[in-house]
Amino acid sequence: MYEAKLIETKSFFARNNQFKKNEDGKLLLRPFIDASRDIVKFVDLLGPLFLPVSKDIKGNIGKIGDFILHHCENICYVNQIVEYEKLNIQDEDKRIGTDAILWLKRSLEYVSAFLFHFYHDYSDKKRSENLDEYFNSAYEDTLQQHHNWFVRKLFYLCMKAIPNRTRLLELLGKNETITEEIIFEDIKNYRTTLQGNIDLINKIFDDHQLVK
């Protein structure tokens, strides 16, 4: 007797934690962390060579958790971490929570930039099978300026193993019920709030005159 095969009814970005809209210039910490953890799942889809990227994101999420555990457990907003450390820690190099937010934000910028290119490849009806250009452009526009030569070479090595368009769409859930149109609509909606969170963190850093 054959068992019926379960068919996924939501695309990857629709079934994972969403980034939330900010509240009057404040960014809720828990939804931000939960959604950032699910970004790791997306990076993992890209293949085992992206493991260093996943570990970096998880490491910065862990540092934020350690900050809350050791300093102030009742923190509700990302803003409060930056404010607390600026008020209580004079040496910027020892502001572990702020540094973790900064590097997590930079990783999110990379993902957001790729999703921007990937979506517009679809909306402009290009449908390029080779996605190298978009991953490279995203890296050059975001993380590259913050990396030394060794890390840059590591990133370019990772990008040699990225899936093509057909495979990535399969990984994102394309099947009998989830069409390409649904996937890209979910990408557009997902990236809108992701980029909104990034923009707010940049504003927080600007308000406190911090490097971003």
Mind sketching the topology for me?
Elements (H helix, E strand, L loop, with lengths): L11 H4 L13 H17 L5 H20 L7 H11 L7 H28 L8 H10 L7 H10 L6 H7 L8 H28 L5
What does this structure look like?
By secondary structure, the chain is mostly helical. It has a single domain, classed as Glycolipid transfer protein (Glycolipid transfer protein, GLTP), CATH 1.10.3520.10. The protein is globular. 30% of the residues are buried.
Short key terms for the protein model shown above:
single chain; 212 residues; mainly alpha; Glycolipid transfer protein, GLTP; 9 helices; disordered N terminus
Determine Rg (CA atoms, Å). Answer: 18 Å
Helix content: 55-70%
Uncertain runs with pLDDT below 50, 5 residues or more? Answer: 1-5
Class based on secondary structure composition and strand pairing: mainly alpha
CA-to-CA gap between the ends?
Answer: 59 Å
Write a brief caption for the model.
The chain has 212 residues and is mainly alpha-helical. It has nine helices and no strands.
